[in-house]
Amino acid sequence: MKKRWLWLVLLISLLLSACSNPTVTQPATQSLTELPTDNTPALTLTDALGRTVTLPTLPQRIVVTGKASLMVLDAMYMFPEARERVVAFEDISQGDVNFISLLDPNYAEKAWLERDAGVEQFVTAEPDLVVMKSSNAEKYGAPIEAINIPVVYVDFETPEQYTRDLGILGQIFGNPNRAEELVAYYQGRVDAITAALPAEASRPSTLLLQYAVKDGAVAFTVPPLSWMQTRLVEMAGGTVAWQDVQASSGWTTVTIEQIAVWDPDVILIVAYNDDPSAVVASLKEDAQWKTLRAVQNGKLLGFPKDLYSWDQPDTRWALGLQWLATVLHPEQFKPEALMLAVQDFYQFAYGMDAQAFDAYIKPALQGDMP
Fold this sequence. Notes:
The chain is an alpha/beta fold.
């Protein structure tokens, strides 16, 4: 009888011990940073403007604002901590759906900042950090810093800046491991394409045009030579056809006559507000466009997009790079591999499983997919 009681006491003790010391398994991409117990700052970092920013603790209430903030948001949401710590941003998109609404279950409570949000909105949000592109520093950042709300600037405009700025986000979220994973992903895509490109002499002349309709008139524009769109053409093994366009700070309008003078091997149509495939189909019926070599050889193509276009300095630029390499050099890059790469991107970057990908991303795909 005594033995039975001893076994019972031992069993109860083991159960109590197990309950008081639970085992918590963190996701492989998550790193927890302890808050300081003394006066040592939790975080000191250098932002895109080269400023040293010191925060007393890891920020728990982050606000994102300013022009092109949706691209900053897309980068932030590749970190699992963003869902809890990003508390306010502008409800903007390039189409009918804001991509973040598919990722954040609390989206409706967060997307409330008005465009060109005033300082009073930031006070209401009670942020301990505001993140924005450095191009917004004077217009948006200075008034916020004037009321002692810390601001960290990023760029996310070129592949090199992606490496730096992902590192900044890794510090902000206390998750440098995830930042390293993301940097390795992007660099891996670039390295794989660079290694497979043919000789310099085999690079087709390539023209990237943005199509837009304003006040009923159609306009075609080319990007600055330093922008992501131009860099993608170069990295994918194309020769930039618009090298002689005078440098500017934004898209430059070009005429059909100028396009005919260039008469490139390949023409790529970017359409942020329209279906690129539909735009290409209409251009193929135009008498002036029919005289171009790219049209005659079936090389007038709509640049793909899903919820956002793949040509711009958004997280999807890696997809744009692979698509470009595929259409410019189909012998080196197999078309059937592209869709697998797209699904892999959404799984790796945002944890989107096959069912969610088929429900939200596949139906939104536009442009000339191989």
